[in-house]
Amino acid sequence: MQKNHYTSMLGQVAYVVISGISLLFFPNFLLGIFGFEPTSEIWIRVLGMLVLALSFYYYAMYKNGGKEIIRATVQGRLFFCAGLLMFVILGMAKPVLIGFAIAETGLALWTLSEIRKN
């Protein structure tokens, strides 16, 4: 059985690799770009490690994932975006976080359109 390769999942891999490496190795540079205060807390690097770990899953899904598992990533990614927007609406985060939500939503919708074509 031939697997469908969703090009959008490669976009997702690139997005999470770049984000993960930035958070892991250059967290204050990335935080500064988006107007957040620098930190010496380990949690930002832990988040970077987790985000980078996601790239392995997304790449495996690109290579081997079926339509339903790929669809689950769309649902999870849109849930994540809704959470980011809620943090901003509740005043818990700066509006710049909406940029991440827009990028993630765009990638998720691209994946959804590929699912519908296949």
Please describe the topology of this protein:
Layout lengths: L6 H19 L1 H7 L9 H22 L2 H23 L7 H21 L1
Helix pairs in contact: 1-2, 1-3, 1-5, 4-5
Can you characterise this structure?
- The structure is a single chain.
- This protein is mainly α.
- The chain has one domain (7-117).
- 78% of the residues lie in helices and 0% in strands.
- It has five helices and no strands.
- The chain has helices at residues 7-25, 27-33, 43-64, 67-89, 97-117.
- Helix 1 (7-25) runs antiparallel to helix 3 and helix 4 (67-89) packs antiparallel against helix 5 (97-117).
- It is globular and about 45 Å long.
- The mean pLDDT is 91.
Low-confidence stretches: none
The major beta sheet can be summarized as: none
The N- and C-terminal alpha carbons lie at a distance of: 14 Å
Write down the Rg.
15 Å
- Helix content percent band: over 70%
How do the helices and strands follow one another from N- to C-terminus? HHHHH
Name the shape in a single word.
globular
The secondary-structure class comes to: mainly alpha
How many beta-strand elements? Answer: 0
Strand content: under 5%
State mean pLDDT (0 to 100 scale): 91
The total number of structural domains is 1
* Number of alpha- plus pi-helical segments: 5
